[in-house]
Design a protein that fits this description.
Blueprint: E1 6-9, H1 13-25, H2 33-39, H3 48-57, E2 61-65, E3 68-76, H4 88-96, E4 98-99, E5 102-103, E6 109-117, H5 126-138, E7 144-150, H6 154-163, E8 166-172, E9 177-184, H7 189-204, E10 207-213, E11 220-221, H8 223-229, H9 239-245, H10 248-264, E12 268-274, E13 283-293, E14 299-308, H11 310-345, H12 349-364, E15 368-376, E16 382-389, H13 394-397, H14 409-412, E17 418-420, E18 447-454, E19 460-468, H15 476-539, H16 548-580, E20 588-591, H17 592-602, H18 604-609, E21 614-618, E22 623-626, H19 628-645, E23 651-658, E24 661-668, H20 700-710, E25 714-719, E26 725-732
Parallel strand pairs: 6-7, 21-23
Antiparallel strand pairs: 1-2, 2-3, 3-6, 4-5, 7-9, 8-9, 10-11, 10-14, 12-13, 13-14, 15-16, 15-19, 17-18, 18-19, 20-22, 23-24, 24-26, 25-26
Helix pairs in contact: 11-12, 11-15, 12-15, 15-16, 17-19, 19-20
Enzyme class: transferase
Organism: Corallococcus caeni
InterPro entries: Acyl_CoA_acyltransferase, GAF, GAF-like_dom_sf, GNAT_dom, HATPase_C_sf, HATPase_dom, His_kinase_dom, HisK_dim/P_dom
């Protein structure tokens, strides 16, 4: 809080009259022995003319509380020695004294004529304040002040010593024993040299000095301290100017530390930031200081030093960042090693991909990550799956799979990595209707990182995608980490898919062996039983066993078994060719209507025997470039399928032209096929009923599909449970585009 006193020079006769009044109240003869011993006293009485003449040479200093004078300190230059004869011996003595080898008479000094403080205001720091005002007012004219203090006036003597007075000489006269004391304002040459040398050392070390008399409004800062705080090179410095230069985040901490130092008498030491200007970077300062208190415990003076430690703090921050990065690197290395081991051991594709997604999300510090990847179904068609990390799967459940937009396309085409500090500001973002950006309710994405995952053959398996709602999260570090992980996962996924294919092959083999053994056993068993029956008849010399009718029936039955075995063998050979990619076509001009009649004629007896009624609707003149034998095989398989699954129902075989294609349709009125089973019937070994209900390997429609697709066509079914089935074969009239098809 501000001081209640005003310290200034004498300005009027009324000021001098108040000085005399206070002096009279404190003369030695007016005080008791106890007061003289405990409170101090003054010994010389002045009059008003004397004070006026002294004031004319050098104004004395007074302290006022309001309009009341409560303290004074009289200035008595050597020119005034004759004004107070009682002090002449003191002046004569002082001029004979030396201080550190220099006579006082050769120095600029004046005598403190008298200092006195009203009893009601002692202990308020006025003694120091009066002397400090002397120094501020007269230091340009004088180098020091000299005075005498009674050695019995212990209070006064201690007060002078605290201020910095040194005793030069002690003597006794008829009235008392006196100590001649001096307070230097300009150090002697040797001391000055030491201080100058100390200043040079501090300046070389970049250490600035500052101080503040707490009764004054300004802070004294040297040039280095001004640079540290970004203060002007000259001019007064007030606390408000210093506050402006302290970093806002540190201001409260600095002021709290200064307050504690003054209130608790604790050393002031703090590291904080200053801002020399709005454009310049902050500086870090290490500031230390001490607070000096008066006898009553009030803070009177605050001073210390400052040092720029910006480089030190930058080094500390660099080391801290290095340690953080090293720790991050060790953690990342652990994650990568753990993930690498898992990749090498895991052959289940879904588990593998989920593990990679989790590890990559952790490595990138993403809010969430996803791996969208392509897989092949049993027909070789690609479809997309995905794994998520960091968010529940429900977060994506209501949104479609990523499309080949400008943002996603480079990743799914394997063109390179995309890293964006803010994908919403990317020129590729928001071009696709209808949403023109992320759909409503989608996870917020600003930082974006996408890395393609490509197999050793160059095939793009999928992509790793990472997002964060805060811009600028992903750096080149995260990009490198995920790129390295993507290379590893590509190899692991290749291995997993190879393992998956091997498993599928083993499963297919086991299924094939199971079905084939059953299907082969049936005709073989039939022929074996017939052979055993004939052997018994021969051994019994039974002539009735060899009638024409019986032999004909036996031959026909044997031929049917042989035909069935031949078909099984042909189907197995076709499957082998398809698996090896060696299903060749012998192309020629084929009239599809004629071919259809020929096949239907061959099946007429079987169809009639099974109770089918057949309707033909064949458009004439549909000629294309096809493999006749293979198309006969397709139609035969469709008719066989109707015989097995829709016996006794009406059949319709249609043929029509559609654009540049021929469309062959086989329709039955059988039990129909459920929607969930319609894609399965074209796969290997797939049958909708058990082997005991329907014979065959379950290969007919599978082979038919590959034959039709080899011609560049398409086979599909439309059906509903209880409403029969319609099989469509669409064939391009120009034949297959495959240049490897064999020519006739």
């Amino acid at each position: 809080m501000p001081s209640p006193y005003v310290i200034r020079a004498v300005q009027s006769r009324a000021d001098l009259e108040q000085v005399l009044a206070l002096q009279r109240r404190n003369l030695k003869q007016h005080l008791s022995e106890e007061e003289r011993r405990t409170q101090g006293f003054v010994t010389v009485a002045h009059d008003l003319p004397t004070l006026e003449r002294m004031h004319a040479v050098a104004p004395s200093i007074i302290a006022l509380q309001g309009s009341e004078l409560v303290a004074y300190a009289l200035v008595m230059p050597r020119e005034c020695r004759a004004l107070v004869p009682v002090l002449e011996p003191m002046f004569a003595l002082v001029e004979q004294l030396e201080d550190q080898g220099r006579p006082l008479r050769e120095q600029r000094f004046y005598v403190m004529g008298q200092i006195c403080i009203d009893k009601a205001h002692r202990g308020q720091g006025l003694f120091e304040a009066l002397y400090h005002q002397h120094r501020e007012q007269l230091r340009g004219t004088f180098d020091c002040v000299v005075t005498e203090v009674s050695v019995h006036n212990r209070r006064s003597l201690r007060a002078h010593e605290r201020l910095g007075f040194r005793t030069l000489h002690t003597y006794a006269d008829a009235t008392d024993t006196w100590a001649v004391v001096r307070w230097d304002w300009v150090p002697p040459p040797r001391r000055l040299e030491e201080l100058e040398r100390s200043d040079r050392v501090l300046a070389a070390a970049g250490i600035g000095r500052w101080s503040r008399d707490l009764s004054q409004p300004h802070i004294v800062c040297d040039a280095i301290c001004r640079v540290h705080c970004g203060l002007p090179a000259d001019g007064p410095v007030d606390p408000a100017r210093v506050r402006e230069r302290i970093h806002p985040e540190d201001l409260e901490r600095v002021w709290d530390a200064a307050r504690r130092s003054m209130e608790e008498r604790a050393p002031f030491e703090l590291r904080f930031r200053t801002r020399p200007s709005a454009e310049a970077p902050s500086r870090w300062l290490h500031v230390t200081g001490s607070v000096f208190h008066d006898a009553a415990g009030r803070a009177r003076h605050f001073e210390g030093i400052s040092q720029d430690i910006t480089a030190e703090r930058q080094l500390e921050e660099s080391l801290r960042q290095t340690l953080i990065e090293k720790n991050d690197s060790l953690q990342n290395l652990e994650i990568i090693n753990r993930t690498g081991q898992a990749l090498g051991a895991e052959l289940q594709l879904e588990k593998l991909v989920q593990g990679v997604t989790d590890a990559a999300t952790q490595l990138t510090r993403a809010a969430f990550g996803a791996f969208f990847y392509n897989v092949l179904d049993e027909r070789g068609n690609a479809y997309m799956l995905y794994t998520l990390s960091g968010v529940p799967r429900e977060s994506f459940a209501n949104f479609p799979m990523p499309r080949s937009t400008r943002v996603f396309e480079p990743t799914f085409k394997g063109e390179g990595i995309i890293r964006s500090d803010d994908i919403t500001k990317d020129p590729r973002y928001g071009h696709n209707a209808p949403r023109r950006g992320m759909p409503e309710g989608h996870l917020p994405v600003r930082s974006y990182l996408a890395v393609p995952v490509s197999s050793r053959s160059g095939e793009v398996i999928g992509g790793l995608f990472f997002g964060h709602p805060t811009p600028g999260v992903f750096t080149a570090r995260e990009e490198r980490l995920v790129a390295g992980l993507a290379a590893q996962v590509a190899v692991a996924m290749d291995n997993a898919r190879l393992f998956q294919r091997v498993q599928e092959a083993v499963t297919s083999r086991d299924t094939f062996l199971s079905i084939a053994s059953h299907e082969l056993r049936t005709p073989i068993t039939s022929m074996k039983l017939m052979s055993q029956h004939m052997r018994k008849r021969i051994d019994a010399n039974d002539p009735a066993a060899f009638t024409r009718e019986r032999v004909t029936r036996m031959v026909e039955q044997t031929e049917r078994s042989i035909d069935r075995l031949a078909r099984l063998v042909d189907d197995m050979l076709d499957i082998s060719r398809i698996a090896a990619g060696r299903l060749q076509l012998h192309l020629e001009r084929v009239d599809l209507g004629d071919l259809t009649r020929d096949v239907v004629d061959r099946f007429e007896q079987q169809l009639t025997g099974a109770g089918h009624t057949l309707t033909l609707r064949l458009a004439p003149g549909l000629v294309g470039r096809w493999d006749r034998g293979r198309l006969e095989q397709v139609l035969a398989n469709l008719l066989t399928n109707a015989l097995k699954y829709a016996p006794g129902t009406p059949l319709t075989v249609s043929l029509q032209a559609r654009d540049d294609h021929a469309v062959l349709e086989v329709e039955d009125r059988g039990p129909g096929i459920a929607p969930g089973d319609q894609h399965r019937i074209f796969e290997r070994f797939e049958r909708l009923v058990t082997a005991s209900e329907v014979s065959g390997l379950g290969l007919g429609l599978h082979i038919a599909r590959h034959i039709v697709e080899a011609h560049g066509g398409r086979i599909h079914v439309r059906s509903a449970v209880g409403d029969g089935a319609r099989f469509f074969v669409e064939l391009p009239l120009a034949g297959p585009p495959d240049a490897t098809a064999a020519k006739p």
